[in-house]
Design goal:
The protein is an alpha+beta fold. About 45% of the residues lie in helices and about 25% in strands. The strands form five sheets. It has an eight-stranded mixed beta barrel. Strands 2-1-5-4-3 form a five-stranded antiparallel sheet, with helices on both faces. The protein is rod-shaped and about 195 Å long. The chain starts with a helix and ends with a helix. It binds ligand C2E and magnesium ion (2 copies). One magnesium ion (MG) binds near residues 525, 618 and 648.
């Protein structure tokens, strides 16, 4: 029954009106006709000042119901996980739920009646307050996001809904706040935002395809690297990027891995839109749904072309000779090992060629290193032209080259190539304005005939090459068993050489040098001999190179010098004051560092009371070309003490007149190979004559070596040569015998 109706009824009937049968009966009658709730019943009863049991009961029922409703409401709001509070417009808390209690860290009873300022830190309180005011001023609900801190220090993000709280008359009597924890949502949003940011801005290309591997998305980096825009490739397969550098098997293996493991990563070459081929490092991941079904693929890649290029450069530097571009020693060894394996499987042979240029050092010294380098480049090129693509040409360093000839069917082929290389080398090298001639010595060894191991093959080829040099250079030589024996013999000889000096096995022989104008012996050359206990007399040509190699030459040379001067002292009475002894000195003796005996040679002479000019040191032309200041200084020190200097074997090396002058040389000894030609070839006669004239112009005296016939002697006299030495007069003889010659 409507409340207004009851009021009207009351007003209409007047205050003192009492219905017939009393009010309770009336109320009962009204209740019979209308549905009257307990609340209406109580209202009506109160309005009409009715006291009745029924009314009291209704009243009690109503109160119980209200309490129950309140408890219910309380239960409801406490069950809500959101934070809920009510406030007066002035900000005094009227109530809150348990979620809010937890946030405030206080029971509701301590919250109600307080403002936020007394519950929270001032910043939080003031910020909340200003939002409350803003919302109340606007008169409608407002939502904001706020980070709050719980008493345990936990931080969460709330989405706070503030809404006005109206009374039944419709006016605002407070506000309600509801805060919902959106921390997780925020985190996901942030994650997504970051992911999008990364996707947009990363340097790594990202590509998404559907389950059929059709492109559906790509990031800007992907567009930049590939050169394609999404519109151009949308719906197409990423295989449009293929460069063709990977074969089918490559992709098959890749897909097998993706299908098995769900991802694959590796490197591949792709092609940009502009056709350029580039290297990429790439990862392909399957994109699976929660149910495990395939949604698509995510492809991540980066351009590693530059990295590849620098790796390649490093690799090239490690494996190739920078000057000629040929494989270097390291790469050569690798190839040789590979080739040996291949030939072993195929049952074929291979040949290893060691090529060494003849007298390259002299050429290099005369031409200068730059032209020397150009020469080496050209040599490499020429060797390359003599071989097939499947063969390997490498530079081992200096003027040493090597060739691996593979899949040999017969060894004639090897000889052909070796001869071809020699022929090619014989062609003039035009380097700028210079025309240079070189020759090469080649050593050849065969796999598996000569050896099956890399190390042994290398040794063989090296020995064969030295054999070619010893046979007169500009030729090839096969490795032979004899060579191997010779090499072993060499090792033994070196061993014996070490003990020879202490064992007193060396002898000094003397060969007279005769003045052509008088026919008198006016000099003698000291020449060493080795009386080997088992092998008998060994000539210097055989052991001096070994002594040089091992450095033993320094002690041996010193011994020869002392021995020669000892005899010179003894013969002092027999001979003229001008008599000279000539001693050979190896370049190694000059290059030796430290306190070498040579430096005391002049002291030694002083001690013996022999004037410096009674001794001549014979050096070779090569030594003068050596720009090493130590060598120059040693030479000049000899000169200072009056010791004279002769150039031995003149004409076989690369002498320069400028050097002869610069070092103030005293004698030229024309090599016996020229003298030998005197009778036969006109050219050599002219050359000999030219040497003699030139030497005289420079103030040098000339000694002809190896004079064996009277004809040679006569011709030398005619050409104006100063002295001669040779078997025509005498072979080198022991000192006692030489003494007899002198006495004659
Ligand atoms: P070299 O200094 O040019 O000595 C001349 C060589 O020619 C000697 O050979 C000599 O026996 C040889 N000879 C002389 N006259 C004739 C001739 O008419 N016909 C022929 N066919 N040969 C002749 P040898 O004694 O065997 O010495 C060879 C080389 O060993 C020397 O050439 C020299 O370079 C070196 N040598 C010798 N003794 C020493 C030494 O004490 N120290 C150093 N560092 N080297 C030495
Ligand atoms: Mg000599
Ligand atoms: Mg000589």
């Amino acid at each position: 029954m409507h409340r207004l109706l009851l009021r009207q009824l009351q007003r209409h009937l007047g205050k003192d009106f009492v219905p017939e049968g009393g009010w309770p009966q009336f109320l009962g009658a009204v209740s019979d006709h209308y549905e009257v709730s307990d609340q209406e019943r109580v209202l009506l009863g109160n309005a009409l000042h009715v006291n009745s049991d029924e009314l009291t009961a209704a009243n009690q029922r109503l109160r119980a119901q209200s309490e129950q409703e309140h408890a219910q409401l309380r239960g409801v709001i406490d069950s809500i996980p959101d934070l809920i509070y009510f406030k007066t417009p002035e900000g005094i808390y009227l109530g809150c739920n348990q979620a809010f209690e937890r946030y405030a860290g206080l029971p509701e009873s301590s919250i109600v009646g307080n403002t936020a300022l007394s519950l929270f830190d001032s910043a939080t309180a003031l910020k909340g307050r200003s939002r409350d005011t803003e919302m109340l001023a606007g008169g409608k609900a407002m939502v904001s996001e706020e980070w709050v801190t719980y008493p345990d220090g936990g931080n969460i993000c709330l989405e706070v809904l503030r809404t006005p709280y109206f009374n039944s008359g419709g006016s605002v009597i407070g506000l309600i706040g509801i805060g919902r924890n959106i921390t997780e949502r925020k985190r996901l949003e942030e994650e997504r935002r970051l992911a999008a940011l990364v996707y947009q801005h990363t340097a790594e290309g990202m590509l998404v395809t559907d389950a059929d591997y059709h492109i559906i998305a790509m990031n800007p980096a992907c567009a930049r690297i590939t050169g394609y825009e999404l519109e151009e490739v949308f719906g197409r397969s990423p295989s449009i990027f293929n460069s063709g550098r990977q074969d089918r098997t490559f992709y098959e293996t890749m897909w097998a891995a993706i299908n098995k493991a769900g991802y694959w990563s590796g490197e591949m070459w792709d092609r940009r839109k502009n056709g350029e081929i580039y290297a990429k490092s790439i990862t392909i991941n399957q994109l699976l749904g929660d149910d495990g079904s395939l949604h698509g693929y995510v492809v991540l890649f980066s351009d590693i072309t530059e990295k590849k290029q620098s790796e390649e450069l490093i690799w090239r530097q490690a494996n190739f000779d920078m000057l000629t571009g040929l494989p270097n020693r390291r790469m050569f060894r690798d190839r040789l090992e590979q080739e040996i394996k291949k030939e072993r499987r195929a049952g074929l042979s291979l040949a290893l060629l060691f090529i060494d240029l003849d007298h390259f050092k002299e050429i290099n010294d005369t031409l200068g290193h730059q032209l020397g380098d150009e020469l080496l480049i050209e040599v490499g090129r020429r060797i390359g032209k003599c071989t097939r693509d499947s063969d390997t040409v490498a530079r081992l360093g200096g003027d040493e080259f090597t060739v691996i000839l593979t899949q040999l069917i017969d060894s004639k082929h090897v000889e052909g190539i070796a001869q071809e290389i020699i022929n090619r080398m014989a062609e003039p090298f035009v380097l700028g304005e210079d025309v240079v001639y070189v020759s090469a010595s080649i050593g050849i060894t065969l796999y598996p005939e000569d050896a099956t191991e890399v190390e042994q093959l290398l040794q063989n080829a090296d020995q064969a090459m030295y054999a070619a040099k010893n046979m007169g250079r500009n030729r090839y030589s096969y490795f032979t068993y004899t060579l191997q024996i010779a090499a072993q013999g060499r090792v033994r000889l070196i061993h014996d050489l070490r003990g020879a000096l202490a064992a007193g096995q060396f002898r000094v022989y003397f060969q007279p040098i005769v003045e052509l104008s008088t026919g008198c012996i006016h000099k003698a050359e000291a020449l060493i001999r080795w009386e080997h206990p088992e092998r008998g007399m060994i000539g210097p040509s055989e052991f001096i190179p070994l002594a040089e190699e091992t450095g033993l030459i320094i002690e041996i040379g010193d011994w020869v010098f002392r021995e020669a001067t000892r005899w010179l002292m003894r013969w002092n009475d027999l001979i003229t004051d001008e008599f000279q002894i000539s001693v050979n000195a190896s370049p190694v003796q000059f290059r030796a560092d430290g306190n070498i005996p040579q430096d005391t040679w002049s002291d030694h002479l002083t001690r013996l009371g022999i004037p410096g000019n009674r001794v001549v040191i014979e050096i070779t032309e090569g030594l003068l070309l050596d720009a090493d200041p130590d060598v120059v200084n040693r030479l000049l020190r000899f000169r200072d003490s009056g010791i004279q200097v002769a150039i031995d074997d003149f004409g076989t090396g690369y002498s320069s007149l400028a050097y002869l002058k610069k070092f103030d040389i005293d004698y030229l000894k024309i090599d016996q190979s020229f003298v030998r030609m005197l009778g036969t070839e006109n050219n050599d006669r002219a050359l000999c004559e030219a040497i003699i004239v030139m030497a005289h112009k420079l103030g040098l005296r000339v000694i002809a070596e190896g004079v064996e016939t009277e004809q040679e002697r006569d011709w030398l006299i005619a050409a104006g040569c100063d002295s001669m030495q040779g078997f025509l007069i005498s072979k080198p003889v022991p000192p006692e015998q030489f003494e007899l010659l002198l006495q004659k």
